[in-house]
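Sample pair:
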Amino acid sequence: MSAAISAAFDSGNIRVAGQEEDRFDLEIVADHLSDFYQWFHFRLTGAAGRPVTLRILNAGESAYPDGWPGYSACVSSDRDAWTRVPTDYADGILTIRHTPETDNVWFAYFAPYSMERHHDLVATIAGLPGVAYESLGRTLDGQEMDYLRIGDGPLQIWLYARQHPGETMAEWWMEGALERLTDEHDPVARALRDKATFHIVPNMNPDGSRRGHLRTNAAGVNLNREWHEPSPERSPEVLHVRAKMDETGVDFAMDVHGDEAIPYVFIAGFEGIPNWTDRQGALYHRFRDTLARRSPDFQTARGYQAAEPGKANLSMSTNQLANRFGAVAMTLEMPFKDNEDLPDAVHGWSPERSIQLARDCLGTLYEMIDDLKR
């Protein structure tokens, strides 16, 4: 059987540029109407027991070429368990080497979170006691903007993920958060539901997710640069979600992401917003430091450089929400590479670690939730 590669499926992305027996030359396809690309997801068939070489020729011109050194690709034969395989980067080419045990194997930039799994998650959680579902509107491709409300306490907590669709670890995190928040036997979840109302958007960018994009929606727009002035033509996803936030108010917000280049877990805040208050800053730092105490996977020494006073970019959601509502807002970043503070040679950063981090974030929130009251 001759080996073949395909990507015509939910979140698939690759183009075959050439093949010589079991060596493939590949190219990642750019997001529609955009120059961004880095996400790949494809299927290899017919190569059981044979060493295969996969060369991504345009890796050097990708959105974040600094993300390739030290990176290992993800592989699965059942689309459930994902491990890392030997991967090298040199002269702008990413080379993946693998000898598959079966004639069906999938490769991805990170373990995918398909729109089908998203629908399964929403259906499961929406059917549980105490959970309310609403579609906030539709995307440019006509998909629903799924929203879940949990709890009935006075504090308004917003959790939203995957503005950048290729950052699939963000929705794995969401799965962990939703599972804990709806666990009737979890005392932390019970207390959180009593003290707060949780507003959750598990996937901010369904169109980009299904299309196999890295960073943009169906119009080629980076949603995390639209929060100052979203529009139905460019960014209906942000428009719908921000309108709901205006309706509910926001006391605490977490925007969940993945970072291509930095091999650590960290959060970014809202330094530099015009309406900054010391109270907001103190609560943000308390959350950060408490999470570092609770989770060995989290650290505070490395991350993004903070904006100078008055220089915050209000088109980004964390800055916009902190400035607009006086909220304690933050961006959580997880790595595509492994976490160098606690490496795992087999799995690297993984769906399971993303899920566990969500549980630790909710535990951290519980420790400080009473102080969020104004």
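The longest helix spans residues 351-368.
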